[in-house]
Every structure is written in C-alpha cells, then in structure tokens.
C-alpha cells in the first residue's frame, strides 16, 4: 500500500504528510478531497505524492489503516480493579481517551464509514473487518476480566456471557453513534451520561427484569 520511498523520508516529514492527509479526509470524502489540496496542505508536489504512494487511493487507504492502528492501540487491561463495572468503564475510558487524543482521526474514521465510492469501498470493508476483529478480540479479553468478578451460576457458559455482553455493549454504542452520527465528537462531551446509560442497560441484563 505504501512504497519504500515514503519510509525513507524523515519522521518529521512523514508526520506532516500523514497529519495533513487525515485532516483533509476528515472534512472531505474520497472524491471531494482534491489531490492539489492534499499536496498543498502537506507541502509536497503531486509528483512526490505519487512517488510515495502511487495514487490518491493508496494514500487514502494508508491513512485509513494508520488511523485504525492508532484507535485500537493500548486496549489492554492491567488487572487493577475488583469490580465488574470498574473494568467495563476502564475499557470505555481507554477508548474515550484514544478518541479525544486523536479527534481528526476519529472524524476521518466517521467519514470513511459513510464512504460509498466504488474505487475504495471494497478495500474499506476489508480494513474495517480487520479493525472490528482486532477491537473485538481486545475487548473480549477485558470483558472476561470483568465477568470473573461476578458470581455466576454454575451452569453458565462463560464464553456465551462474554459474547452476549459484547453484543449488548455494541448495540448501546451503535444507538449513540446513530444519535450523534452528524456530530460524533459531541458524544464525548456527554460521555458521563453515556456511561450512566450503559450501566442501566447492563443492570437490566445482569440482574434481570422479573421477580421470581
């Protein structure tokens, strides 16, 4: 996806090109982001952009993969909490911290999720599939640590509990992402309210809704 020519330039120059590219693609779709705008903002010529990446598509997908890697880093649990909800919220706080640390990357990811242009849509789906798998694997490990803090029935399948909680949490997250789809960063301005809502939903799942 990226040529060795790009890897040979200085880290400072690479960072400038990556940062400006993400900034532009966080505001414009793949088609709307003109090559001359990208090169102007990045401080390079069109010839150099093509020398480094071959074409705009490769540059776009390189930035997308770079963003995915950034937003899935550090999703590990160090085992410092004794309460189910503390561990669940620890996971959410890690994701929140990454998103607030990388606002342009978050906006870019949001733009990519809406991208439908045939030139990049298949590649986007493939990279998103890897992203979701990677994120799910890390989240499942953290959820397992949280589940171990609960007093489960002896007949409960732990793996099914983890899968159920993952689906449940994902559904709550999707609800909020839909609510804030046109203004994703506002979700994180209301993050404490979001966590409160998550706890209420999880309480329903864990403790039930009927009196025996």
Amino-to-carboxy terminus distance:
58 Å
Number of domains: 2
- Report the average pLDDT across residues: 86
Question: In percent terms, what proportion of residues is strand?
Answer: under 5%
Helix content: over 70%
Explained architecture:
- This protein has 212 residues and is mainly alpha-helical.
- The protein has eleven helices and no strands.
- The chain folds into two domains: 6-66, Orthogonal Bundle (Arc Repressor Mutant, subunit A), CATH 1.10.10; 73-207, no CATH class.
- The protein has helices at 4-7, 11-25, 35-42, 46-53, 56-71, 84-101, 103-113, 118-147, 158-179, 184-189, 191-207.
- The longest helix is centred in the middle third of the chain and has 30 residues, at 118-147.
- It is elongated.
- The protein starts with a helix and ends in a 5-residue tail after the last helix.
- InterPro entries: Homeodomain-like_sf, HTH-type_Tx_Regulator, HTH_TetR, Tet_transcr_reg_TetR-rel_C_sf.
- Residues 34-53 bind DNA.
- Residues 11-71 form the HTH tetR-type domain.
- This is TetR family transcriptional regulator.
Which labels suit this protein?
212 residues, mainly alpha, single chain, Arc Repressor Mutant, subunit A
